[in-house]
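Form 7-S
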Amino acid sequence: MILINLLPHREAARKLRRDTFNAMLGLAAVVGLVIGGGVYLWYQNQISEQQSKNAFLQREIKVLDDQIKEIATIEAEIAALTARQKAVEDLQADRNLPVHLLNELVKQLPDGVYVTNLKQDNQSVTIQGVAQSNERISELLRNLADNTPWLSKPDLVEIVAGSVALSPRDQRRVANFNLRVRLTRASEVKAAGAAAPAASAAPVSTAPSKTGK
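Output:
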């Protein structure tokens, strides 16, 4: 017996394919939304974790900044205390500078040179006096430059010719001078004294002698 299908099977097949396509499309959309939602949630979680890390780092940086400011304050206080300590030490060491000044002047003044005025301003000393000749003044400058560790850098300001009356009939020509010299601190004298033995103890290389036959 032959069966004949008179129903519109082509249209039913098309409808089936269309329904299947729509179902697959809907399923793909749902899967896409799920995947997109999962990716979004993952990124949100990563962003939240990074923000938490950033907040932690900001707090730690603020703590470190406060510590750095505290350290800077401590260093400034230490520097101020060191400066005050050095000032006190310099004052204690410089108490005897006038004594050294007068003692060295007595030693270094050549015969025929007389000091009429002496003024000290910190480490600068102004000396005014009278000399029998310019050569005596030159000798004084050499002595102050080379023969004493307490005085250095003598600088002749001026020489003015003058005269001194030894008696109503005896007039002597003299040279009135004005010079400046630097008074050396005790710490500098001590440092220079410590450096001198070190320099003298430096090894001297000698070439070996060769003898030939």
